[in-house]
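#lab-general

N.A. 3:47 PM
ok so I finally got the sequence cleaned up, no stray characters, all 213 residues accounted for. can someone with queue access submit it? mine expired

B.Y. 3:52 PM
send it over

N.A. 3:53 PM
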Amino acid sequence: MTLPSTIAAPVEHRLEVKRSVFLARLEPVDSMERADAVVAAIRKQHWDARHHCVAMIVGPHADRQRSNDDGEPAGTAGAPMLEVLRHRDVTDLVAVVTRWFGGTLLGAGGLVRAYGAAVTGALDAARPVERVPLTEMSLEAPHADAGRILAHLHQWAAAHGALLDDPVYAAAATLSLRVAPEDVAALQAEVAALTGGTLDAVVGDTRIVDRPR
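B.Y. 4:20 PM
back already:
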């Protein structure tokens, strides 16, 4: 399953067109309410700017979307900003482009290009984070066997793009991995072969996990 990606941290990109300054800021958010709070903070910080145009996409499947032209001609700011986000297949982020007017009208086409380019530049500067569904799996191994099994799981995880958690040592060693759902059966077979069928890999929940590219 391929899910929309997001970004690791806030990022800014500055663009100047005919003396108008466009400052794009992207921030990762986990809700529309958090996105609105980011917009409010930017409005307060850059109180002297004429426009603060907004596009936001939220949800694992990018199902909540909104944009705002903030006084620019309809369809010339928020819509092209949102289209850039959609085209780049991202979610859980808000884009705010703050504009200081430079005295020269850019026209509808010029505004569309400027607002779109500002968001594109910010996305190009951001560190993308891939989002993938991973299934939690674990097994309990005797301490005497844990080192050998853990070394093998390290190799298996590297080959399959799985995430291996730190082992937990108690009465036995608990070894946990997060694997792609389609690899669950393969890991179970690998553990059975590695331990002669004496240990089972227990399947847990499947969750969406952020993984830097």
